[in-house]
Each structure stands twice: as C-alpha cells, then as structure tokens.
C-alpha cells in the first residue's frame, strides 16, 4: 500500500515522492522491486543526457544552463549528480549551489545528487533506476552529471542517450581522457571556459585525437562554451537534440536503449547470483578446507557453488 502511494506520487511528479523514491534506490530498499514494477510501464519518454569530465571543468554550470534551456522550451527537466566513488555526501548537494537557486521553486525542475549506500551492484546499477524514476515522473530531459572521470563515471555517462564530455583548459587533457576510454563514448565534446587562455589548443588537440579514432556514423562535434557567462548553451542544446534526432531517425536510439536494458538486467541477475554463491560458500565452510587441502580444485568448487546458487 505504501509503495502504491509512492508510485502514485512519483507519477504525479510530487517532489517529495520523487525524492523518497530516489533514496530508496540509493539504499537498495526492500520495496525497490515493487516500486520499479509500478513505474517501469510509465517510462521511456525522457531524453537522457550524460555530462562527464574532470572536476572543475564546469559540468554543474553547464547543467544549470541546460536546465534554463529546457525551461525556456517549457520542458520539465531533472538533473541527477552522481558520485560513484565517494560515500553518501548528504541530500541535495547540487540544489544548494547558488547557480541552481533560481530553479529551486520551479515545479518543472528537479535537482538531486546521489550516491549509493546499499544498492546491489553500486552506482552503475543504481543510476539507471534513479533515471527511470525521473522519467516516470515526467521530466522530459534528464541530465546525469558525474563527479569524476574514472571507469564508473564513464559507465554511468555511457548509459544515457547522449554522452557529453566536458573539457576545460588546464583540467584533464585529451590524452588522459583517451586512456580512460572516455573519447569512445562521447557523442558531443564541449570545451568549456572558452574565455580562458588555452581553449583553442584544447579544441585542436581534441580534434587531432578524434581524427585518429575509428570513423563512426556520427561525428562527435567539438563545441566551445563559457558556461558561467551563458555562452554556448544554446549550441549545446541544439547539438544534443540533433544527436537524438540522428539516433531516432536511424533506429539506433531504440537499439541503444534495448541493449542498455539487456546489459542492465544481465548485471542485476549476475549480482543476485554472486550473492547466492557467497551465501552457499558461507553455508559450507568445509569447502574452503577441501580447497586448502588440495582435495578440491577451484574450478570444481566454483561449479559446485554455481549449481547450489541456481537452486
Ligand atoms: P564541475 O566540477 O565540473 O561541476 O564544475 P563547476 O560547474 O562546479 O565549475 C567549477 C568552477 O568553474 C566554478 O567556480 C564555476 O563558476 C567556474 N566556471 C564554470 N564555467 C566557467 C566558464 O565558462 N568560464 C570560467 N572562467 N569559469 C567557469
């Protein structure tokens, strides 16, 4: 009954319900399954945008700009700031930031930072569920901002329709990004802080690196912006819309979303299986003794655990 009420509140885009539902995802609540079951049929309409890049490049400022761009078009918009590595940082970190204040009372805007405390499989699995809550709540654009540039952040950003990679002069060069595998997942590049020295060099370096990469059917544009001055935001918005239209026209959007879902379900199932295998191992302490005494080999032990976990 309580979950039904939460589902109703999310679908009615009640701020408190949306916030509670996202907390349930963070915590890996027992109610999560029924919450997800109630909301899932009402998802699929939102366009999701990933913003990733080194700390300080201006992701939050750009996110605030995109919120403004969405609101001029009367589109409900949400920003989810995801921190895959650090422990819980406490509530609406991002919402407290001054530049987001102007949207604080706008019912068409929802801003929230999240970390995981108990969700099975960590942020890579928690973030997509949080995005679906925002989707079900009717936010037509969902911006997922990641805090760092590690593998977990790349995974989270890659799980959106359009992944935007942000750079700025002096902060995280293109070579580093290539090493992190970030260039491959980018659909759009933004060199922010174009008001600073060194921006044209970053653009040039990036274009050279992209030139070396494999040809794709979508050439990621390299844009420039001065987010703190509101410059380049409209161009970014347009590029995001063009990318989405490009994907939709070729059928790639549906294919991308489908394979994303399949991968997610596979990971969720694998997480469950892993837990059951660990449980089976705990239930049979002798197995470790047998292993240690060389009477049982690791492969046979794994096969035994796998079959017990599947029971
Ligand atoms: P994030 O860590 O990537 O989210 O970066 P923030 O959006 O928090 O921005 C980091 C700092 O850079 C803040 O002090 C911003 O005001 C500033 N900043 C953002 N965009 C620009 C810009 O275009 N030019 C300049 N000079 N500073 C900017």
Sum up the structure in keywords.
Rossmann fold; 311 residues; 7 strands; alpha/beta; binds guanosine-5'-diphosphate; 12% strand; 7-stranded parallel β-sheet
How would you classify the helix and strand content by structural class?
alpha/beta
Instruction: Give, in order, the helices and strands.
Output: HHHEHEEHEHEHHEHEHHHH
Distance between the termini: 31 Å
Small ligands present: guanosine-5'-diphosphate
CATH level-4 homologous superfamily of the largest domain:
P-loop containing nucleotide triphosphate hydrolases
- Estimate the helix proportion, in percent: 40-55%
Please explain how this structure is put together.
The protein has about 300 residues and is α/β, with parallel strands linked by helices. The protein has two domains: about 45-250, Rossmann fold (3-Layer(aba) Sandwich), CATH 3.40.50; about 265-310, no CATH class. It has 13 helices and seven strands. It has a seven-stranded parallel beta sheet with strand order 3-2-4-1-5-6-7, with helices on both faces. Helix 11 packs across helix 13 (about 300-310). The longest helix has about 30 residues, at about 250-280. The chain is globular and about 65 Å long. The relative contact order is 0.12. Mean pLDDT is about 90; it is low at about 90-95. Bound molecules: guanosine-5'-diphosphate (GDP). Guanosine-5'-diphosphate binds near residues 53, 195, 227 and 228. Guanosine-5'-diphosphate (GDP) binds near residues 56, 57, 195 and 226.
């Amino acid at each position: 009954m309580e979950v039904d009420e939460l589902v109703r509140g999310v679908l009615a885009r009640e701020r408190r319900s949306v916030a509670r539902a996202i907390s349930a995802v963070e915590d890996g609540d027992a109610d999560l399954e029924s919450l997800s079951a109630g909301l899932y049929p009402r998802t699929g309409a939102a366009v999701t945008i990933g913003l990733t890049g080194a700390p300080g490049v201006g992701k939050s400022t750009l996110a605030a700009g995109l919120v403004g761009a969405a609101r001029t078009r009367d589109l409900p918009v949400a920003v989810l700031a995801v921190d895959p590595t650090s422990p819980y940082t406490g509530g609406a970190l991002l919402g407290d930031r001054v530049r987001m204040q102007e949207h604080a009372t706008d019912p068409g805007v929802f801003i929230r930072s999240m970390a995981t405390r108990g969700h099975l499989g960590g942020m890579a699995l928690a973030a997509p569920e949080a995005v679906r809550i925002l989707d079900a709540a009717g936010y037509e654009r969902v911006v997922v901002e990641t805090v760092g540039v590690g593998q977990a952040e790349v995974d989270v950003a890659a799980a959106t329709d359009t992944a935007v990679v942000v750079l700025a002069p002096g902060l995280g060069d293109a070579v580093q990004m290539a090493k992190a595998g970030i260039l491959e997942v980018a659909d759009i590049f933004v060199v922010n802080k174009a008001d600073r020295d060194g921006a044209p060099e970053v653009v040039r370096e990036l274009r050279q690196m992209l030139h070396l990469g494999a040809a794709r059917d979508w050439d990621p544009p390299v844009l420039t912006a001065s987010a703190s001055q509101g410059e380049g935001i409209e161009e970014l918005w347009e590029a995001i819309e063009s990318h989405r239209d490009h994907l939709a026209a070729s059928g790639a959007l549906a294919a991308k979303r489908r394979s994303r879902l399949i991968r997610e379900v596979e990971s969720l199932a694998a997480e469950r299986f892993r837990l059951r295998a660990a449980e089976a191992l705990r239930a049979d302490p002798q197995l470790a003794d047998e292993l240690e005494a060389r009477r049982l080999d690791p492969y046979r032990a794994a096969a035994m655990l796998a079959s017990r976990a599947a029971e």
